[in-house]
C-alpha cells in the first residue's frame, strides 16, 4: 500500500512539473535576469550642459563670457572667444575688439584698432608665434597705456594674453593678463612654450 501510494505521488508530481513547464514560455527567465531581481537601480548624473566659451560654470545673469587662449606650436592657433563667438584672426564685433598677433607684422592694424576704438570698448589680445619682434615698440606702448604690465617683457615666442578696457575700468577681481616665456628645458612643444589662457565674466553694464 505504501509503495503504491509513493508511486502515485511520484507520478502526480511528474505530471504537475510537466504541466507547469508547458505553461511557462521559453527564454522568459534567465540566470542573469534572476540575479538582477533585487538590485537597486543605478542613478546616472545627467551630462553637464556646455557653457559659453567652454566655461566650467555659467556666467551670472547680466554678464558677458570671454576666454583668451594663446597659440602653442605651429599648428595650435591662438583663439579668442566672446559670448561664444570664436576668433583666430583680427576681429572687431560691435564694441568688442579682439586681436591675435601672428608671425606677420600687424603692428599697424593693432594701432589702428586701439586708436580708433570708441570709449567703452573692450579689447582682447593674444600672441601666436613671436610678439617680441613682430610687434613694433609704438604698438607695445599703446598696449602698455591700456594697462599691460607684460607687453614690453615679451621675449622670443612668449605666450601672452591680455584683456583691457578703453574708457572704463574692469573689475579688480578678474585676471587681466598672463605671460609664459619660452624655455628649452620646459617647453611643451619644440621651441614653443605651452599655451596659456585667461577667462571670466564681464558685467554688461560696464560696456
UniProtKB/TrEMBL annotation:
GO terms for molecular function: carbohydrate binding. GO terms for cellular component: extracellular region. Residues 105-167 form the ILEI/PANDER domain. It is found in: Secreted. Keywords: Disulfide bond, Lectin, Secreted, Signal. PANTHER family: UNCHARACTERIZED FAM3. Belongs to the FAM3 family. This is FAM3B protein. The lineage of its organism: Eukaryota, Metazoa, Chordata, Craniata, Vertebrata. The gene is Fam3b.
Amino acid at each position: 500500500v505504501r509503495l503504491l501510494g509513493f508511486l502515485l505521488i511520484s507520478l502526480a508530481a511528474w505530471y504537475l512539473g510537466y504541466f507547469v513547464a508547458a505553461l511557462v514560455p521559453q527564454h522568459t527567465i534567465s540566470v542573469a535576469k534572476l540575479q538582477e531581481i533585487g538590485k537597486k537601480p543605478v542613478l546616472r548624473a545627467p551630462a553637464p550642459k556646455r557653457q559659453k566659451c567652454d566655461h566650467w560654470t555659467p556666467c551670472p545673469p547680466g554678464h558677458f563670457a570671454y576666454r583668451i587662449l594663446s597659440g602653442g606650436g605651429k599648428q595650435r592657433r591662438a583663439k579668442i572667444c566672446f559670448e561664444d563667438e570664436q576668433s583666430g584672426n583680427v576681429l572687431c564685433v560691435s564694441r568688442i575688439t579682439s586681436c591675435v598677433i601672428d608671425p606677420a607684422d600687424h603692428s599697424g592694424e593693432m594701432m589702428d584698432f586701439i586708436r580708433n576704438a570708441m570709449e567703452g570698448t573692450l579689447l582682447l589680445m593674444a600672441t601666436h608665434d613671436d610678439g617680441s619682434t613682430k610687434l613694433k615698440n609704438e604698438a607695445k606702448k599703446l598696449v602698455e597705456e591700456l594697462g599691460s604690465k607684460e607687453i614690453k617683457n615679451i621675449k622670443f615666442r612668449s605666450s601672452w594674453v591680455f584683456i583691457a578696457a578703453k574708457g572704463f575700468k574692469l573689475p579688480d577681481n578678474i585676471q587681466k593678463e598672463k605671460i609664459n616665456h619660452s624655455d628649452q628645458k620646459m617647453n611643451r612643444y619644440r621651441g614653443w612654450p605651452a599655451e596659456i589662457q585667461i577667462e571670466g565674466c564681464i558685467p554688461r553694464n560696464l560696456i
